[in-house]
Amino acid sequence: MKYVPDLKIFDVVLIFIYIIWCLCLIMVFKNGYFEFQSIKQAIQLTGFGSAFLIYGMYDKKLRNNKIFFTWLVICIIQFLIYVLYADLPEFSHPKGSSLSPIRGLLISVLTYRVIRYLYYKIFKRELIITGRGDFVGRRSFEEHRTVGKADFIFSILGAMIILFAMIFL
């Protein structure tokens, strides 16, 4: 049985809050309301944090195509912002640009979709990202099955792909 959660008010609010947060960061940067170093740290925290929170805690929601494509549009917009502003001297960093972490959300959403697709093709069932209660050997109530070692391996593989892509790309 395939579990695909419905779009709920929580999802709309979360997406709205994320968009407002990103717009606030842009406005603060453009108008110089805070020290620039603080803005760069907030951007980096947003990039890394959102990538791993989406992958690790919002994964079942990404099965809903409306939610997935909404986040994909947000990711593409963030990536375009990265492309437009990464070369500015204000964002220069010894290892590239301090805007690099905002690419993480796109990497995370796409990695989840690819890992989920591969898992489904191999095992003919939905991937359960392990963590936050779904551990190997424990029963997943949404999926009506026990979390297996393959779920764990694919979960770790996805997280490692995201981590390495964010660090080395």
Structure explained in plain terms:
With 169 residues, the chain is mainly α. The chain is 63% helix and 5% strand. A two-stranded antiparallel sheet has the order 1-2. A hairpin with a 4-residue loop joins strand 3 and strand 4. It starts with 8 loop residues before the first helix and ends with a helix. The mean pLDDT is 85.
SSE order and pairing:
Blueprint: H1 9-31, H2 36-57, H3 65-85, E1 92-93, E2 96-97, H4 104-123, E3 139-140, E4 145-146, H5 149-168
Antiparallel strand pairs: 1-2, 3-4
Helix pairs in contact: 1-2, 2-4, 2-5, 3-4, 4-5
Keywords:
single chain, two-stranded antiparallel ribbon, mainly alpha, 4 strands, two-stranded antiparallel sheet, 169 residues
Number of helices: 5
Low-confidence stretches: none
Coarse morphology: elongated
* Structure class: mainly alpha
Strand residues, percent: under 5%
Rg to the nearest angstrom?
17 Å
Number-wise, the strands total 4
Major sheet details: 2 strands, antiparallel
> What is the helix/strand order?
HHHEEHEEH
Mean pLDDT: 85
Helix content: 55-70%
Terminus-to-terminus distance: 37 Å
Largest sheet, spatial ordering of strands: 1-2
